[in-house]
Design goal:
Blueprint (H helix, E strand, L loop, with lengths): L1 H22 L20 H37 L3 H34 L9
Helix pairs in contact: 2-3
């Protein structure tokens, strides 16, 4: 055990000593920095694309989480057996998952309705 501790201490010290060398091994291809003010300006279409991407991602993740809760509640309900408390907790989890999915889909519907009102296609290219 003492030998292992000694070897590990020496190994960590060697790795820390060689780390700058390993980091600078690729230093030959470092690009020269450019001005942050150069380039194309941010347009409304860029912002729209970013909002669209974030909204789709959040809605997709939220629906997946809601489905996981529904499946988890179903599995808990099947494993509850005769235990009324476990069955009640499982039913509550299923209902909460369904409510969560409905809320997320309602938010998507509200976003689509607002996008239509302002003549802005967020989810569908109509």
């Amino acid at each position: 055990m003492y030998k292992f501790k000694t070897v590990s201490k020496v190994g960590i010290a060697t790795a820390m000593a060689l780390l700058p060398v390993l980091v600078l091994a690729q230093g030959l291809g470092i690009p020269t920095p450019t001005s942050p003010y150069a380039g194309a300006p941010v347009t409304l279409q860029d912002i729209q694309g970013l909002i669209e991407t974030v909204a789709r991602f959040l809605i997709l993740i939220s629906v997946v989480v809601a489905i996981i809760f529904i499946v988890w509640g179903g599995m808990m309900y099947m494993m509850a057996g005769d235990d009324a408390a476990k069955a009640g907790a499982a039913k509550t989890r299923i209902v909460n998952g369904i409510i969560g999915a409905l809320v997320v889909l309602a938010v998507g519907l509200i976003l689509q309705t607002l996008a239509t009102v302002v003549n802005w296609t967020v989810f569908f290219n109509v």
